[in-house]
Amino acid sequence: MNADFLTFEQLKQLYPNEWILLGNPQMQNTTVLGGTVLYHSKDKKEVCYIGRDKTKDFLKVTIAFAGDLKQARKIGVLRRL
Questions:
Q1: Which one of 17, 56, 64, 66 is most buried, counting C-beta atoms within 10 A?
Q2: Which domain of life is it from (predicted)?
């Protein structure tokens, strides 16, 4: 493994509640196990747009969130009164 490789647990400690662009990610099915950090931010769009230029030397890249993705609001059925 590369010296810059970080496990997902390390990523969660270093970048809590941030979106992380990873180069050459190690994955198990759809679960991210780790990778090389290319860019990180609390803003997902920023990671997508600014991080795009940092991916040229990597065969695979992915974006992962190092936090809890709880729904901010409940979605339900509304009744008319």
A1: 64
A2: Bacteria
